[in-house]
Specification:
Elements: E1 7-8, H1 18-24, H2 41-44, E2 47-53, E3 59-65, E4 68-73, E5 98-102, H3 110-132, H4 137-144
Parallel strand pairs: 1-2
Antiparallel strand pairs: 2-3, 3-4, 4-5
Length: 145
C-alpha cells in the first residue's frame, strides 16, 4: 500500500442536525448539486474517504475536501447521481478513473494540490490491492484506516 497517508477514513461528527442545517444555510433548500457540510470546520478541510461498492459491482473510493467530491475508480464503471435527462446522468463511465464534482470554484494552495495527488495515489493503491485480493466489506473499511 502507498506509504504516505492523507485520507481520513473515520466519519467526522455532525455539528448540527439536518433541520438546523436547513435553517442555517439557505442554499440547502433543495438546489441540485449544492453540498453543505454539517461537520466541524477543521474536518471540512481534511481528505475524508469512504470505500463504496458501486451498483456495477466495482469498488470505488469517494473523497471529499471542502465542497469537492472526488470519485476514484479503477475504470470498472460507476453510477453517480446526476441531473437532467437519463442520457446525461453519468451512466457511461466505463474506463473512467477520476470523477470530480464541485459546488463552485476550487481555490487551493500548492500543498492542497500535492495532497490531492497523494490522496489519489492512496485511494488507487487501496483499490488495486483489494482487486488483487478480494475481502469482505467490513475488512475493507478497516484496511482503509
Amino acid at each position: 500500500m502507498h506509504k504516505t497517508k492523507v485520507l481520513m477514513w473515520e466519519k467526522p461528527p455532525h455539528t448540527m442536525t439536518p433541520e438546523e442545517r436547513r435553517k442555517h444555510f439557505s442554499s440547502h433548500s433543495g438546489i441540485p448539486g449544492t453540498y453543505v457540510p454539517r461537520m466541524p470546520e477543521e474536518d471540512i478541510k481534511k481528505w475524508k474517504a469512504t470505500l463504496v461498492e458501486t451498483k456495477t459491482g466495482h469498488l470505488q473510493v469517494e473523497v471529499r475536501k471542502d465542497a469537492a467530491l472526488f470519485i476514484i475508480s479503477l475504470g470498472g464503471g460507476y453510477k453517480h447521481r446526476g441531473y437532467g435527462p437519463d442520457a446525461l446522468r453519468g451512466y457511461n463511465t466505463l474506463g473512467k478513473n477520476i470523477h470530480i464534482a464541485v459546488s463552485g470554484a476550487l481555490q487551493w494552495t500548492w500543498q492542497d494540490m500535492e495532497e490531492f495527488q497523494l490522496a489519489i495515489a492512496e485511494a488507487r493503491s487501496l483499490l488495486e490491492e483489494l482487486e488483487a485480493e478480494p475481502k469482505p466489506k467490513a475488512a475493507i473499511n478497516e484496511q482503509g484506516k
